[in-house]
Amino acid sequence: MCDAIISASNRLAKERQAVDELNVFPVPDGDTGTNMSMTLAAASRELERLTEPTVSEAADVAAAALLRGARGNSGVILSLLFRGLSKGLKGKETADGADLAEALGMGVEAAYKAVMKPTEGTMLTVAREAVAKGKEAAAKDSSAKNVWEAICKEAEASLQRTPDLLPVLKKAGVVDAGGKGLCIVFRAMQDVFEGGSIETKAGEAVSTGEISAAGAFEADIKFTYCTEFIIGREKGNTNDPLRLRAYLESIGDSVVLVDDPEIIKVHLHTNDPGLALSEAIKYGQFETVKIENMRIQHQNAAWVPEDVSDSETLERSEPENEYGFVAVAAGEGLKALFKDLGCDNVVSGGQTMNPSTDDILNAIQATPAKNVFVLPNNKNIILAAEQAIPLADRKVHVLQTRTIPQGIAAMLNFNPDDDVQTNLLNMMKAADNVTTGSVTFAVRDSDYSGRSIKEGDILALENGKVIFSDSEVKHAVVKLTKSIVNTRRITGRETSFITLIYGKDVKEAEAEEVLEALQERYGNSIDITLVNGGQPVYYYFISVE
In this structure, are residues 114 and 83 in contact, taking their beta carbons and an 8 Å threshold? Predict the structure, then answer.
């Protein structure tokens, strides 16, 4: 079990980009393959420290690490599947195929319960149908090899059926990304169950018989140098870090890039660190650089690159106050705004940078309150936040805020004199009254909802749904705002306030021009406020209420 999960983690890391590319939504998002890979890597790091664990021990360690390391909805679902394995294999030194299928079934049940509105045609369907076939196989031959092979084959067949269940997949000509990631994990585990190869971090494979008691291995390494660096962002530098990531992918593998408003953290394996550094200098000034020769280190199979997540080190605080708040946001302006509104801690995160459950938990534990309200402010972060609830030593209440404007509205409607339930009701009522507009760019060509979208197009979204594409940011913001105000009027909701939150790639003068255009349109009938959010990826968030 231990080797199987480690091998699955390494293979998924190698194929995560292919999984990412299956995402059909054209806007920049958390990327399924990356989230699943980073989640599973959390388990792999812990498992590599074990020496001859039982099946139960390996499953327990993996489940605990996955729970805390889960990122995005796909990562949370993956962690729940392995939590089922942990529960079902509790106390067992070994397990046959019937045990594995039954335990995985417990994980499927937990995953379905965790998702508020389960959608068929996703990794949930793939897991459920695979388990059913595994249980059928176990009735005839309960060997792990036979049952897990049945699980793999049915998962792969179920994956091919996902476009029949989700029209958006069929129209795009792809299968579900989460389901694809799950198939990769299952198949890599099966290869080990059959006594085959364990995938290595460098993308090579080594037979289980070649591994020494210390875990050392002899294998060719595709890319010699583990290269890590931190770049300080320079004011006015408009180079897009997504392009840096794309370049690094072309000269190496195991690329992890964390884009923060102040810094860019990078990890990759490459044969020419100089090329990576020469390209990276275009994005700012180096703060740290570390290059290590993996051929020299290859005898230590337990070596793992340092974690490059951008979570801050927070110390636990005693729960002294009655109420406290944790918000998730990216951009120094937005972080400062949530702090001003009363948030004790703000976790860096949002689109393209989903924080882990552990990141959110650390912020909760550092909040000196008996009741901690968590505002995820992103639909792909809500599940990860909810997984922190049973882990905290204080009461945690996760609000279903799906956007930054919703989070701001919720905070503005907190009343310290009200009890928890009254505040939850009033805060979410205020959040639901907000219509969120956002303007970003298309990261891929797409035929989405009947619209032909080209990479680089400016996209206008209302409550997460693409409304139209444009060629110019200012025009898109003004047009989108007018559309939202008109839609609210038609549905009987008048507009009193508009807040424009501009991102790090928008100059103040440009934002002022948008503000003036809207003021000319609405005069004194609507109060319009301009805020420098500094958020990445999105040129503007528009809060209309």
Answer: no
Model confidence at 321, pLDDT cuts 50, 70, 90, reads: very high
Q: What is the mean pLDDT of residues 109-129?
A: 89
Q: Are β-strands 497-502 and 451-453 bridged in parallel, bridged antiparallel, or unpaired?
A: unpaired
- Cα radius of gyration (the chain): 24
pLDDT of residue 221: 59
Q: CA of 248: how far to CAs of 37, 270, 338, in Å?
A: 18, 8, 34
Express as a percent the part of the chain with pLDDT over 70: 89
> Shortest CA distance to 147 belongs to which of 86, 80, 102?
102
Give domain limits for the chain: 2-199, 225-297, 321-432, 435-544
Q: Residue for token digits 């636990």?
A: 316
Cα of 124 vs its chain's centroid, Å = 17
CA dist list (Å): 181 to 16, 45, 100, 184: 8, 19, 19, 5
CB 376 within 8 A of CB 398: yes
Q: Which fold has domain 321-432?
A: Rossmann fold (3.40.50)
Compute the distance between CA of residue 223 and CA of residue 522 in angstroms, rounded to an integer: 58
State which fold the 2-199 domain adopts.
1.25.40
Backbone angles phi, psi at 34, to 5 degrees: -65, -45
> What secondary structure letter does DSSP report for 307?
P
What the block records as the tokens of 123 is 């990794």
Q: Does the pLDDT value for residue 59 go beyond 70?
A: yes
Give bridge partners of residue 203 from the DSSP assignment. Answer: none
Q: Which of 51-55, 351-355, 422-426, 530-534 has the highest mean pLDDT?
A: 422-426
User: pTM for the whole thing?
Assistant: 0.74
123 contacts 162 by C-beta, under 8 angstroms:
no
Please give the Cα distance from 469 to 451 (Å, whole number): 9
Q: What is the pLDDT of residues 283-298, one digit of tens each?
A: 888 888 888 777 665 4
* Enclosing H/E stretch for 461: strand 458-462
Give the CATH number of domain 225-297.
Answer: 3.30.70
- When pLDDT is cut at 50, 70 and 90, the band that residue 420 belongs to is very high
The CATH code belonging to domain 435-544 is: 3.30.1180.20
Find the helix or strand (DSSP H, E) in which 238 lies: none
Token pair in block for residue 142:
């309960």
- Judge whether 225-297 and 435-544 match in fold: no
Q: What is the Cα–Cα distance from 223 to 294, expressed in whole angstroms?
A: 8
Q: Which of 108, 107, 40 is nearest to 68 (CA)?
A: 40
pLDDT > 90: what percent of the chain?
Answer: 41
Residue spans of beta strands (DSSP E) within 377-434? 395-398
Does residue 453 register a pLDDT over 80? no
Please list, residue by residue across 36-69, b when 16 or more beta carbons sit within 10 angstroms of its beta carbon and e when fewer do: bbbbbbbbbbbbbebeebbbbbbbbbbbbbbbbb
